Amino acid sequence: MRTTSSLDNTGSTSDIHKNGHRDILTTDLTSRFHGVSTQKSAFTSPRGTGVREKGLRAELLKKDLIKSISEQVHAQLTPQPPAPELSSVTKTDYKVKGFRGVRPSPSTDRDYRTDEAITFWKENFEKIQ
């Protein structure tokens, strides 16, 4: 009897390729796979060169184009709100049918251009002296 005979009868080959052989790498059934291999630990992601790949003008043009297109799409997708119906006190009180605005006649005949101004001091200067 071979030592590895228990490994030979583990099931179909598709199951072996899918799940692998049990107990080949470790005998601890509760251990977890760490997700790090020698290939992964040796690989470092490539770093940038530190030099601009595109010019500043091209970058600004691209940003401006993206901004204008996004504004156009936003304007197309969001409908304009309906114009509010404005109603003021003047409209409700004085623009009613049948209302006639008539100026009252002056109670005294005065002309502000020629008459002397009436002030507190002009009226009370005798009381002060």
UniProtKB/TrEMBL annotation:
Q: Name one GO biological process term.
A: positive regulation of transcription by RNA polymerase II
Region span, Disordered: 1-23
Q: Output one GO MF annotation.
A: microtubule binding
User: Do you know which InterPro entries this protein is assigned to?
Assistant: Sperm-assoc_Ag8
Q: Which domain of life is it from?
A: Eukaryota
Extent of Polar residues compositional bias: 1-14
Q: Which GO terms describe its cellular component?
A: cytoplasm; nucleus
Q: PANTHER family annotated for this entry?
A: SPERM-ASSOCIATED ANTIGEN 8
Protein name stated in the entry: Sperm-associated antigen 8-like
Species of origin = Clarias magur (Asian catfish)
